[in-house]
Amino acid sequence: MDNEEIKLEKPLFYKNHFALRFEIGPPEIGAWSNFDNENFNEEYFNVALDRAVKIFSTVFSSDDDCSIVYQIYSDGRRKIKNRNFLFKQVSDVKNRKVVFTDHREIYSEDLDYKCECWKRATISNVKVNDVNVDNILIALINSDFGSRSPSLIGECFFINHNNGLVLNLYDDRGMDVVAPKKDALEQLYRRHNDWILDYDRKRIDSVFS
Predict the structure, then answer these.
(1) Which of 57, 78, 82, 193 is most buried, judging by how many CB atoms fall within 10 Å of its CB?
(2) Which residues pair with 131 in a beta bridge?
(3) Contact between residue 177 and residue 188 where contact means Cβ atoms under 8 Å apart
(4) Which stretches in the chain have pLDDT values below 70?
(5) Residue closest to 133 by CA, chosen among 56, 48, 37, 42
(6) Given this model, what pLDDT does residue 68 score?
(7) What is the dihedral of CA 10, 14, 20, 25, to 10 degrees?
(8) 118-173 tens-digit pLDDT
(9) pLDDT value of position 1
(10) Burial 64-80 (b: 16+ CB within 10 A, else e)
């Protein structure tokens, strides 16, 4: 898949015509076990991970060719370090193709100074089997909860080169899956229809029903 077909900028759902948005963390359960926000409700995180893994597994087969794109905002000094949690989830990452690039064409309206950019690391030529996907997904789910680990701060996009789609778990609340063509998403729409975010369901149904 040509990466230029889909701009790696959140929210993917609102920037692509063929797009699905899923509710990951169930609000009826809640992330906290009491009203004082002192203790986490582990059931919430278990359900969120289960949904995220099942959605991922529907559109990524174990031997699919994929790339992982990780990016962070930088004021010119902040960089993606080699010891980043994400790299540890890819087997034999030292011998993988990892490309570091700077980008000002994404979120350009938020970049006020020339030194500001988005730092991106692209890990390509990997199979799904080469990646500990569950660890990455739970780290993204934890990203808004400072005391939970593992945690992965930044944006992570999974690109499936076999069926031409991009998946982004943006935090514990939701996941976007987009593609240049409708047929890449139709099975996902049918199989996990109950998890589609109700707020966007009308728009989604108008495209896929």
Answers:
(1) 193
(2) 90
(3) yes
(4) 1-4, 35-37
(5) 56
(6) 98
(7) 50
(8) 999 999 989 999 999 999 999 999 999 988 999 999 999 999 999 999 999 999 99
(9) 42
(10) bebbbbbbbebeeeeeb
SS (H, E, C) the chain: CCHHHCCCCCCHHHHCCCEEEEECCCCCCCCECCCCCCCECHHHHHHHHHHHHHHHHHHCCCCCEEEEEEEEEECCCCCCCCCCCCHHHECCHHHCEEEEEEECCCCHHHCCCCCCEEEEEEEEEEEHHHECHHHHHHHHHHHHCCCCCCCCCCEEEEEECCCCEEEEEEECCEEEEECCCHHHCHHHHHHCHHHECHHHHHHHHHHHC
Confidence (pLDDT) at 116: 96
The Cα–Cα gap between 121 and 46 comes to 29
Helical pair 42-59 and 133-141, crossing angle rounded to 10 deg? 130
pLDDT of residue 144: 93
Residue whose C-alpha is closest to residue 45's, from 34, 58, 30: 30
Note whether 13 and 200 are within 8 A (CB). Answer: yes
**Biggest alpha carbon–alpha carbon distance for the chain:** 48
CA 96 to chain centre: 21
